[in-house]
Structure formats: C-alpha cells, structure tokens
Amino acid sequence: MTTTLPPTAARLVPPRVALASCIRGYMVRSTLGVQLAPGQRLNRFPATPFCSITWMIEGSGELLEPARAGAVAQQGMAIFSGPWTQPFMTGNPGPVHTFTVLFFADALHALTGLDMAAQLDTMAQVDAVLGDEWDAVSGAVLAAADDEARIRLFEDWLEPRWRVARGVASGAATWSPARDWVQALAVRAAATGAGRSARMVERRVRAWAGHPLRTLRRLARVEESLLAARDEQQAGQLSLSDVALRGGYSDQAHLSREARELIGASPREIIRLAQTDESYWPYRIWW
Predict the structure, then answer these.
(1) Ordered DSSP codes for 25-93
(2) What's the gap between Cα 286 and its chain centre?
(3) What is the DSSP letter of 223?
(4) Is residue 229 a contact partner of residue 267, using CB atoms and an 8 Å limit?
(5) What mean pLDDT is predicted for residues 120-142?
(6) Which of 2, 35, 83, 132 has the fewest Cβ atoms within 10 Å of its own Cβ atom?
(7) Cβ 225 vs Cβ 238: under 8 Å
(8) 232 CB contacts (<8 Å, ≥6 apart)?
(9) Omega prior to 66 cis, within 30 of 0
(10) Domains of the chain, with CATH numbers?
C-alpha cells in the first residue's frame, strides 16, 4: 500500500564551492501550515560524524532519545550539536521551521580549536560552546528574510574565516562521499606533527573529528552502502547481498547489523521508512 506523506518542506542544500571542504550541507525543514499527528512531529537522525548548528526560526523542539534533561530548543535559539555515536530523535510539539548547517568536524575544529572528542553526543546553545562571535552571526541568521538569505549571510561571514583556517586563498573541494573525507582526514593526521605512530594518528583524529578513525570508516561505509541500495532499488534491481559485498561487509546480515546500530534500522527498512514515515524525513532528503 502506498503511503501519502504530508506536504511538509524538507530539503538539502549544498554549500558554495569555496566552503565545500568545511560545510557538508544545509538542511531546511518546515511544517508550518500543515496539520501533523504526534508521530509525524518526530525527527529521526542517524549516528553522524558531522557537527551542526540548528536555528529555531519558528516553533520549538526537544531531544527525546536518548532522554536528556534540559535539552529543549525554543524559538529564536541556535543549538550546537556535536558528532553522535548513536541514532537520536527529537520532537516538536507544534509547527516548526528549522535551518541547520552541517560541518565536517575537523573543519569546525580548525575554525574554533574545539576538542571534538569532548563534543560527542552533546547539545548546547551556540554561545555556550562557540562564543560571542558565533552567537552574533547566529542572531543575524535568525533575523534574515528567508532561508536563501540565511545561507548567503552565513557563507559570506564564514568564507574569509575558513580561508584563514585552511591557510589557502579559496576552497577547491566539491560535494563528495563521506568516505573521501575520512580517507583524507586519516592521511592528514598521519602527515601532521612529529609523532606519526598509530596512537598519535588516532589522537589527532579524535581531537579533530570526535570519533575514532575506525568509527568514521564504519559511518562512511554504511552511508555509501545505503546510497547504493537506494540507487539500485530505484533502478528496480536491488540486491542487498551484492551491496554488502561491494561495501566490504562479510554478508547481508553484517550490513544489516551495522546499519541498525548506526542508523537505527536495516537498509531495506530505512529505504521504506524514508518514503512512508514522515519522521524519517532526514533520510529522505539525504538518501
């Protein structure tokens, strides 16, 4: 049976080229003017190697799973979130309009000096984590006329700072799989500084990206496999066993176990839920 999803707005917007090695993308979400059942006001997210800032343009939200006292975002707030080691879920009591920027964790480390290992599974207001300068631009983002203006304003503010953090005149990266980022991160960690032992490389990766290198590779591998599964299903020739083997898994069951741990459901379930369950909208726009 085909499920008709409510007419909410959800889209993924890539950054300008000069910031493609800093920003993974923007997620825009609006349920304004749409009547939703309580279960449709949930937002389900996977474990992730990315950091984010979410601006509550209208409405409010709270972290539901894992339960955490005080993790509530009111209208007008900007919320920083670190990388996550497990799937998590937020909820909105009513209509909402949110605007989220996703950062590569090592890029945000370069911009701010934050130890990303200390940011795992955290949520807090932007001013408490990133300081006054980020809080000021967050206020401007909230006051912007629309989402396109928010992207333009934020990127105009961030680009010169990213040039300094990178030590180059401009960026040259393009949108690429997480696997490419993880590989580049590992190479850079091995080539940086005096100590090049496996232990020193791991310490650098965790300080820059939060997760250990092994977890980053697992997250990248499951993302790539889910994208492959989605494409094959759309072409009418999905074989999860073939997807698993190409992704480096021992078998389909291995892929499913890893997806359940990091994403919250098996690949086949995620593909179905993204198209039939409103609360899985982040998966729908990403995959």
Answers:
(1) EEEEEE-TT----GGGGEEEE--BSEEEEEEEEES-EEEEETT-TT-EE-TT-EEEE--BSS-EEEE-S
(2) 9
(3) H
(4) yes
(5) 96
(6) 2
(7) no
(8) 238, 239, 242, 243
(9) yes
(10) 9-166 (2.60.120.10), 219-286 (1.10.10)
